[in-house]
Structure formats: C-alpha cells, structure tokens
Amino acid sequence: MKGFLIAQGWRLEKTHDMVVLVAYCADHDAELGNMVTEAIILNEYVIAGRYPDDISFDEMGQAQAEEALAAVQNIARRVLTLMTNTD
Prior knowledge:
Number of domains: 1
Number of helices: 5
Structural class: mainly alpha
C-alpha cells in the first residue's frame, strides 16, 4: 500500500498500522479504502512481527492463517491492479 500511496504523491510516513494505510488509500481508491476488515485482521500480525512478546504465533490456527492469507491476497490484488492500470 505504501508504494501505491507514494505513486499518488503521498509523503512517506513511519507507520505499520494497516488501518491507517487503508484510510490514506481511501482518498485515492474507494475499493481499497473499503478494505478495513482486512486491515484489522492483518494489524494483529504486523504488531506481532514487530513486537513478538505481544502475541504468540503458536496461537494461530488454520482458520486464522487462512483468514490472514485471504486478507493479504485481497489487498495485494487490488494494489497490483491499481499499479498496473495507468489509464
């Protein structure tokens, strides 16, 4: 999302909050801006990756892994579509 935002003229900010990034994206693409649910799902894992003591990946089951994967795929698919369509 940051690459998409920078391509839109966004000034890079130091944030890993997926919900904040989706909100910025909403200014440029409504569909991407509507991916708040996906962002909320992914925020838990972004935080865990940066602050591993906050959550244990051992707690992630198959359903949570599939949910997170689907969230990443939805966001990535939309960003790739936007970045490759230069109309």
